[in-house]
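Anyone up for a design puzzle?
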């Protein structure tokens, strides 16, 4: 059985910062559990991915268009099998959020990071938040958790990319402590030295 971390989310007050420790995230009165995804999560993950892709399209973004075309360039099932997908669930096991945290660079990653020094790094993809939990600073908290998980598993860096034209997402990554390394083929690539929780 895979280990899990229980996260306690409490409603965030305007003057409060989201806090996180090894075992919890304080954001609202809902308790959410972070765990490694299992094969049984596949259907829920596919739906969350489709919902996120639809929301992105409705927001004017072309990101994740492959999902709406019935493709999955990140091979979600393989990532689940390899222990590289993490899900955040409520008490009823409904997905609040999920992401892929690769242990090795994919072909996509290798192409984007070709000009950068190769270091032990995990690569974050498909950060998804159910609309019910949007607007609660959960993205920042999940990025911090992914950084801690990367460090805990022996990786010095957490890397990710996003389309250069998405200013909101680029700002989120900079605010989360990521350093922009360069823009490659219309995508900004970011990395962050990992830290413990």
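Challenge accepted. My sequence:
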């Amino acid at each position: 059985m895979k280990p899990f971390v229980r996260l306690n989310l409490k409603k965030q007050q305007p003057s409060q910062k989201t806090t996180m420790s090894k075992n919890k995230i304080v954001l609202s009165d809902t308790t959410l559990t972070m765990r490694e995804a299992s094969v049984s999560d596949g259907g829920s993950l596919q739906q969350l991915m489709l919902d996120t892709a639809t929301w992105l399209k409705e927001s004017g973004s072309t990101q994740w268009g492959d999902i709406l075309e019935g493709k999955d360039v990140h091979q979600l099932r393989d990532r689940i099998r390899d222990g590289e997908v993490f899900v955040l669930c409520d008490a009823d096991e409904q997905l609040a959020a999920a992401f892929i945290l690769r242990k090795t660079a994919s072909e996509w990653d290798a192409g984007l990071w070709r000009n950068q020094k190769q270091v032990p790094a995990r690569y974050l993809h498909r950060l998804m938040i159910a609309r019910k939990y949007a607007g609660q600073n959960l993205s920042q908290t999940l990025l911090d958790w992914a950084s801690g998980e990367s460090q805990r598993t022996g990786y010095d860096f957490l890397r990710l990319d996003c389309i250069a034209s998405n200013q909101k997402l680029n700002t989120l990554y900079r605010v989360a402590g990521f350093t922009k390394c360069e823009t490659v083929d219309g995508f900004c690539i970011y990395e962050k030295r990992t830290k413990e929780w």
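A detail worth pointing out: DSSP finds six helices and ten strands in the chain.
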